[in-house]
Amino acid sequence: MFEELSRRFEAVFNRLRGRGKLTEENISEAVRDVKRALLEADVNYRVVKKFTAAVREKALGAEVLESITPGQQFVKLVHDELTRLMGGNAQPIKLHANRMNVVVLAGLQGSGKTTACAKLALYFRKQGHQPLLVAADMQRPAAIDQLETLGKALGVAVYADRGKKTLQVVEGALARARSEGASLVIIDTAGRLHIDGEMMGELKKICDAASPDEIFFVADAMTGQDAVNVAEQFYREIRFSGSILTKADGDARGGAALSILDVTGVPIRFVGVGEKPDAFEVFHPERMASRILGMGDIVSLVERAQETLDAEKSRILEKKIRRNIFTLQDFLEQLRQIKKMGPIGDLLAMIPGIGRAVKDAEIDNSALTRIEAIICSMTVVERERPQIIDGNRKKRIAAGSGTVVQDVNKLLRQFDSMKLMMKRMNKIAGKRGHAAALRNLAP
Q1: Alpha-carbon gap, residue 155 to 125, rounded angstroms
Q2: What pTM was estimated for this model as a whole?
Q3: Do 168 and 64 belong to one domain?
C-alpha cells in the first residue's frame, strides 16, 4: 500500500545523507519534499500541513548527535511524527470476559464490511471467544449470502432472517446469542454508495437496540482522501470507537491510513492485508511507520511465524538437521508452512535492510508452487532418497508436475547445496561446542 510513499521518502533521505549537517536551508527543502510526497499519497491537506510543521520545528530545534548523520536524524524525526500521526501505540480491543460483547461494523457499500466481519470473528475466536455473525444488511441480499458463505467456511455461526426487518433481525440475533452463550456478536450493517439520511437513521436505530461495546468504521484504503471525508461524517453521526482499514494489500497510496485518526481522533484498530480470512492484523502505528520508511518490521514477522509455524514440527526438523537426515519430504512440509505466512516479497520486506534490496526485484511466488508440485510428483522413496532419481524418473516427475527436466535438476542441485551447507554448519556448531566444553573443564 505504501510502496510509492516509501520510494519518495527514500529519495528525500538519500539527498540529506550526503549533507554534512542539518541547516535551515536543507531542512526546508526536505520538508517541502516530504509535503509533496504526502499530498501525492492522498493524505489530507490539513493533516499534511500539521505534520510538516511539526517535523520542521523539531528538525530546527534538534541537536544532531555525534553518533548519527543528519540524514539519520531527520529519518528519526519523520518516523516519530508518522507514529504519532497514526496513533502512537497500538490499541488492541479488550472484550469483556464475563458477559456478551456486541460489535457493529459500519461504512459505505463496497468498503469490505462483510469480509471484515468474518475476519474479526476469526481473530477473536483464536482468542477463545464464541462469535455470532449477524446479517443485518437487508438492503443487499447478496451481503446475507456472502456472510453465510464466509461463516460456513470458517465454522462460525451466522444469524440471518430474510423475512424480517433490520431491527427485528438484530433483536432476534441478540436473543439467540444469549440463549446459546455466544460471547461476541458481530453485526454487519447496510452501506450505501454515498451517505444519506435513511442510512444513518437505520444505523442509529441498530446502535440504540444493540448497545454495542464497539462501533467500527470500515474504510477502503483504495478510496484515498474521500475515505477521510466519509469518516468525518460517520463520526459526527454515530461516534464510532475505531476504524478498520481494508484492502491495504492493494496498490492504494495509503493517504487514508495517515489521515483518518488525525481528522476524527479515533484510532485505526485493525488492518486487512489480504483476501484470506486470517489476513487481518492489529494496527501498530510504530511498525507501520517503520515499514513506510523502509526499516522493516521484524516484530510482526516473528508474530506471524509464531501464529503460522507448527512448534512441534519445527523441533522435530531441528533434530533432523542436527543429525543430517533432512529429506525432501521435510523440505516440502517447511515450504507449505512458509507459504501460509504470505507472499515471499511481503515477508522479505519485513526484514530490516532487506526491503530496500528486494523492492525492485521480481519475486516469483509461483516458484514455490512449482517446487511443491515437483516434490509431490515424487514417490515416498524418492523423497527420502533423492540420489536414486535417474533420467527416466526425472522425466516422469517433470511430466507429473507440469514442469521440465531442467526444473527437476535445478531443485535437486539446490537441495544438495542446502544439505551440504547444513552439514558444514553442524560441524562448526560441534567444534564450538567442544571448545566451550574444554573451557568449562579448564581450572
Answers
A1: 10
A2: 0.66
A3: no
